Amino acid sequence: MTKKDTLRTFIQSLLAEYGETSAIGDDNSLVLSGLLDSLAVLRIVVFLEEEFGLDLADQGFDQHDFDSVTSIMRFVGDEGDR
Description:
The protein has a single domain, classed as ACP-like (Non-ribosomal Peptide Synthetase Peptidyl Carrier Protein, Chain A, Orthogonal Bundle), CATH 1.10.1200. The chain is mainly α. The chain is globular, with a radius of gyration of 12 Å. It contains 3 helices and no strands. The chain starts with a helix and ends in a 7-residue tail after the last helix.
């Protein structure tokens, strides 16, 4: 499974917890659309740190960095399916 696939799976399970069961595309808005809130963004950050071994503590970011699967992959510097 690629990093992007792993992220998609996590995002889909997170959305299910928020009552959204339909599939989302990589460019669908997650935060600005209201599907996910700031607590969900924090959970995504923790997931990225634990799953991909990233240290995001010293990086500044805002809700736009976490508004879609594509923007999250761009933020972590891994846009490709590696």
